[in-house]
Amino acid sequence: MEHMSALNKEKVFSQCNIVLPQWLDDFIFNKLNAQYCRSNSNMTVIDWGQKEILNYLGTYFPRSYAEAYSIFKRYLQTNCIFETEKSLRLLDFGCGTGGEIIGLSTALAECRANIKVLNVKAIDGNQYALNRFDDIKDEFNKHHILQIFSKPSAIKIDDFYDLSILDSILDEKYDIIVSFKAVCEFVTKQQFEEKNAYEYLAKFMLPKLLDSGLMLLVDVTTKNDVAQEWLPDLMDKGLQNAGASVIKRNPLNNETFVVHHSRQRADISKVAWRIIINN
Length: 279
Ligand SMILES: C[S@@+](CC[C@H](N)C(=O)[O-])C[C@H]1O[C@@H](n2cnc3c(N)ncnc32)[C@H](O)[C@@H]1O
Fold this sequence. Notes:
Layout: H1 2-9, E1 12-14, E2 17-19, H2 22-31, H3 50-59, H4 61-78, E3 87-93, H5 99-111, E4 117-124, H6 127-143, E5 147-154, H7 163-169, E6 174-180, H8 183-188, E7 191-194, H9 197-205, E8 209-220, E9 223-224, E10 229-230, H10 231-241, E11 245-249, E12 255-261, E13 264-277
Parallel strand pairs: 2-12, 3-4, 3-6, 4-5, 6-8
Antiparallel strand pairs: 1-2, 8-13, 9-10, 11-13, 12-13
């Protein structure tokens, strides 16, 4: 663990080489008992129980934290978006334990001191994951002026008709919409039959995005065994069919993010990401 305190002296080495903040590392591993334990590539977290969610928390939460922190911080540093707002609304589809929400919130806290409140609509079908996100959100609030208020919604989407259920709870428009590594599970489980899940999600979400807002879609870059397609290709086809305006994307096929924490030094993730705006 000694290397962590040395590493934390300089929290961020570069934009894509991130150290999990010490408070967050302590909280997930020592208080919540998260475990570092990698799984296979076509995993479906929706079915996981309490113990497996703790494995998710110790393994994949830090990766999503680092990806969201890096992508948002870079974007906030090079654009004047959200420079005058005092509060923002965020919608996360498939938030799980919420690594991306905490990463994004940390980037906002560092780059936009004007924002004091982040209202989060956190949607996921796994109640265990939502409970852990709730714990972490409360702990985040003890360490930051920016306060996260969240309304976790335990909703399992079984097919694309179920998306209309969401309409009843999503009664406002959002400044930021994110979905991190959730659509891949819909592809694996063929929840939108054989239709393009990215297309359905984009068509459903984009009308809920404010004109001044942005949507960030992030997913793993593997070839999906069920769809027999590379997920970034499927993502691009889906976004194009949905008429989405992609304004930024990872260079080349994927982008590598490195996160350091007390259970794993230099843990590497590779993802495809797209930033989308309303036309
Ligand atoms: C790989 S996890 C990603 C979690 C989080 N976004 C992150 O990056 O750490 C995928 C999430 O999507 C959720 N999910 C998958 N299928 C779902 C469905 N049919 N309805 C609701 N949530 C679903 C899972 O419960 C899981 O938390």
